[in-house]
Every structure is written in structure tokens, then in C-alpha cells.
From TrEMBL:
It comes from the Bacteria. This is Acyl-CoA dehydrogenase family protein. Residues 236-387 form the Acyl-CoA dehydrogenase/oxidase C-terminal domain. Its cofactor is FAD. Residues 130-224 form the Acyl-CoA oxidase/dehydrogenase middle domain. The keyword Cytoplasm does not apply. InterPro entries: Acyl-CoA_Oxase/DH_mid-dom (IPR006091), Acyl-CoA_Oxase/DH_mid-dom_sf (IPR046373), AcylCo_DH-like_C (IPR036250), AcylCo_DH/oxidase_C (IPR009075), AcylCoA_DH/ox_N (IPR013786), AcylCoA_DH/ox_N_sf (IPR037069), AcylCoA_DH/oxidase_NM_dom_sf (IPR009100), Mycobact_Acyl-CoA_DH (IPR052161). The lineage of its organism: Bacteria, Pseudomonadati, Pseudomonadota, Alphaproteobacteria, Caulobacterales. Belongs to the acyl-CoA dehydrogenase family.
Amino acid sequence: MADLDTFRAETRAWLEANCPAECRGPLDNDEDRVWGGRNPTFKTSAHKQWMDVMAARGWTAPQWPREYGGGGLDREEAKILASELRRIDAQMPLSSFGIWMLGPALLQFGTEEQKKRFLPEIVRGEIRWCQGYSEPGAGSDLAAIQTRAEDRGDHWIINGQKIWTSYADKADWIFCLIRTDPEAPKHLGISFVLFDMATKGVTTKPIELISGKSAFCETFFDDVRVEKENLVGTLNRGWDVAKALLAHERTMIGGLGDMGRPMGQVAVDSIGLDDAGRLDEPMLRAKIAELEIDAAAFRLSMERVGDQVKAKQVSPAIASMLKYYGSELNKRRHELAMAAGGSDALEWESERSHKGTPARDWLRTKANSIEGGTSEVQLNIIAKHLLQLPGA
């Protein structure tokens, strides 16, 4: 405990000295996130500074091994770092599919050369990734993918299409499922490969959402050459990698349920206080209190599951539970934000509401119960693998 107390004190002092004031407090909108990559954008120079100093300590990926650029922290130290970041309301220094999804898969399935090549770049925010999973005919039934690879000896030629590829038009590289053995049963014959989005034959087309924003894309592969050294894991056993990565993705999406400004403050800013110093809307006050209690319980559940994962005492299907509940919690949070904002929250283009951020963000959350596996799929997994219900 003394060592952890020392670590907390040192971490607190370092964060206070190194986290710029501009990088504390909620983001104005999701577009202000730092994604890194070959052509990164930053809201301010302070946001680049914040990413760089955190990456230099490996704290953009605090539990990854130091030899791959990570922070080398153990579970308890990582908890302390997270709590100290919350204490000063620090913004995330780097948002990254490489950290949230691909990195853990590479640590488990990648070759030593792949780890040394890609992981340090991910930690430093020098490479931005997208995910090539879903296809027009393979969404919830992901193993039905038809994007195919033709064997050309030391490389493949890939043809096909992916859809709902988040930020494909801004990504540098893609981690992708392709069918390398069309004669095998559908869960077999799939391989997990990596390739540069600048490769000849790769094109993207944004998909406009109901919110007016376009994070999702269609992605097309026309005779794309991919070297076989970019195969992750075993040939034709990419489904094993895909399942492991999906667990990380679903946990990441579930974490949305524990993000955002405290809803009470959002409501106070819009509605104000009554004579007793309480939110001047009793029904909304009760709903916000219920949400914050549920969010606190969910946060503790996430920590408990993390400890169970470390001790190898939890089913991989628990990620489906976190994904489902976190998605529902995030949707509730934005429903309440709309209720608290009143007519102002309905504005679509306005300087007062950051050009329609509340309404656009509320509409965006509707996709939480689809992306990463629909809620119906998650409930089926929970019923079968966690509750072991008959007939599930």
C-alpha cells in the first residue's frame, strides 16, 4: 500500500504539472477529440502537447509493456492513474482504435516483429486505424463475409466491400477480415490482415447519418495487394482474432456509459436552481439522480470485471453485458440532456448550442445499440453464455 500511495502522490504531482488547462473539462463536441495519425488535427497546441507528454510516459496505453511503448503499469497503478485523471477532469490525450481494439489483439496474436512495428506508433499517436469487419451482407452474421483474397504466393489480391467503417476516410491503416479459403465452413477460412489505406485500389465513401455527421463509410477493395507478412495470427483462423478484438470493442463501447459531463450540472446550466438550491424541476431531478447512481454502479462493475479478467475468472461473454448496459446508459444520458436543454436543445445550427451539438449527439447515440454487435445479438449471447437459459 505504501508503494501505491507513493505512486498516487507522484502521479498527482506530475499530472498537475503537465496537463494543460485547455485539456481539462469536457470537450465542446466529439470532433475536438485527438485521434493522431499521419495528418493529425488538434483543437489547440496544448492538446498536441498533452498527447505528446502522455505518450512519452506510455500513459496513452498505460498497461501495455514498456518494450512496446506502453506504460508498464499493473492493474492497481492503472486504476490510480485513471482516478487521478478523473480528479482533474483531464481530457483523453489520445482516442485510438489502435489502443482500444487492435493493440490488445496484437499483444495476444501478433508476431514480435508486428508488435515492435505497430504498437509504439499506436502509443505515440502516429498511426490511425479503422476496422474492416461488417459488409452489406454480413452485419450481425459477421462470419458471412465475402471479401476475398486470391493467393499470389508472397501476397494476396483482395477484392470486396466493407460498410460502416468508422473514420475510414481519415484512417492510415485498416485491420480487416478477409476470406482466404472460400471452401471452408464460414467461421473457418477467414484471416485477419493489416494494410495501408493508401494502397492502390482502396477507396472510401462517407455515409451521411441522421445527425448530419458522417463518421461511417463504405470501403471498397479493387485488386488490393496485401503482403502476407501482415497476417495476424494463423492463416484461416482469423475468427479467433476477431472474437478477441470484438470483446475489447464491446467493452470500449460499453465505457460510453461512464463518460460525459455530470448530468446534474448540464441541467443546472439550462434550468437553474430553486429557492432551496436544488434543480428547479423535480421530475427531471429524480431521473438525473437515478442515472448518476446507475452510472456509478456501472463504473464499479467495469472495475470488478477488469479484476476478474486479470485473474482469468470471467467469461469472455461478459463484454456483451458491458456493451449492452453501457449503450443503454449512454442513450439515457443524452435523452436527459435533451430534456434538460428544453427548446434550446432542439436547435440544429446555433452558436449558443455549439451548432446543434446536443441534438446531433443525441441522434448519434442511436447507433450505440447497433455498432459492435446489435443489442439483440448481445442479449442472445448473455442468455446463452452467462445465464445459460434453456433454448438460448
